[in-house]
C-alpha cells in the first residue's frame, strides 16, 4: 500500500473528540499518567486510539528538538527472556553498534504476539523507523508486519522472506534454507536415512527454512531418507531433554539429530551421552548458528556458522541509507552461512 492510499493520520484531537474527553486526558493516557485518569476513561481512550489508528507524531516535537534519531526494535517472542537467545543478541549488537556510530539510539521492546498492537513502542514511541524480528505462525507474522507498515515509517524485517512486500519494507536474513541443504548433504553423504529435527513449538521462520532445506537436499539427491520433526515445548534445556527423552523411550535411535540451534542440539547430545549413546559413532548430532557456546560441547559439534552480527550490521546500514535517500536500495538482503563439520567425518 502506498502512502498516497493511506488515510490521513489521526490526531490527538480526533481521539479526544471520539472518546468525548479533553486532549489533555488523551495525553495523560498516552504518557502513562494514570493518576489523572479513571480506569473506564483509560479503556475508552485506548479503544479510540486503536480504532482510529492513532500514533503520536514526532513532527510537532521535531519543531522544538533536533531530528528524530532513534530506531525502534520490535521482538515478537512468547518467551519473556527474549534477549537470552544467542542469535537475537548478536543481531541486536550488530544493529545497535551501526546505529550508535551514526549517533542513533536503539529502543527495544519484546512482547508476545497478542500484545503487539497495544505495545508502547507501536502506539506512542517517537522513532524514525522500525526493525522487527517476529515469531509465530506465518499468517500472524505477516499481519504483524502489515501493522508495522501501516505506521508510515520504514521497516526492516529480520529472517522473513516477503515476496512483493511494500516499497518501504526491507528484509535482512541469513541463508537458513541453504544451511539446511548443507546439513542434508552432509548427512546423506554419510548414509543417514532417518533424521530427527528437534525444534521449539513456537514457530520461527528461520527454523522452518532450516528444516525445509534438509528436505530440499533429500529431494535433490533422490534419496528415500526421512525427516521427522519433534517439537519441544520451548528451546530450554529441560523442555528439549524432556521431549527427546519421551521420543527415545518409544522410538528406535535415529541416524541423526538436528537441533533447531546449537543449544537445542547440545541438550540432545548430553541426553544421549547420559544414556551411554556414543556421538558420532552411534548417532550424529548437528546444530545451527555456531556461536561461541558450541565450542564447549564435546565432541566438537557439527554446525552451521551464522553471520548474525553481520545481519544486524546490514540492517542498520540499510535503515540509515533509507533515512538518507528516502528509499531502500535493495528490498532483500541474504547473507551466506558456512558449514562447520566439527571433528567428525
Automatic annotation (TrEMBL):
Q: Which SUPFAM superfamilies match?
A: lambda repressor-like DNA-binding domains (SSF47413), Periplasmic binding protein-like I (SSF53822)
InterPro entries per the UniProt record, alphabetical:
HTH_LacI, LacI/GalR-like_sensor, Lambda_DNA-bd_dom_sf, Peripla_BP_I
Name under which the protein is recorded? HTH lacI-type domain-containing protein
Q: Where are the transmembrane segments?
A: none
Identify the keywords attached in UniProt to this record, alphabetized.
Answer: DNA-binding, Transcription, Transcription regulation
Q: Which CDD domains match?
A: HTH_LacI, PBP1_LacI_sugar_binding-like
Which residue intervals define the domain HTH lacI-type in the entry?
A: 10-65
> GO molecular function terms here?
DNA-binding transcription factor activity; transcription cis-regulatory region binding
Originating organism: Devosia insulae DS-56
Highest taxon in the source lineage: Bacteria
What does the record list as coiled-coil region(s)? Answer: none
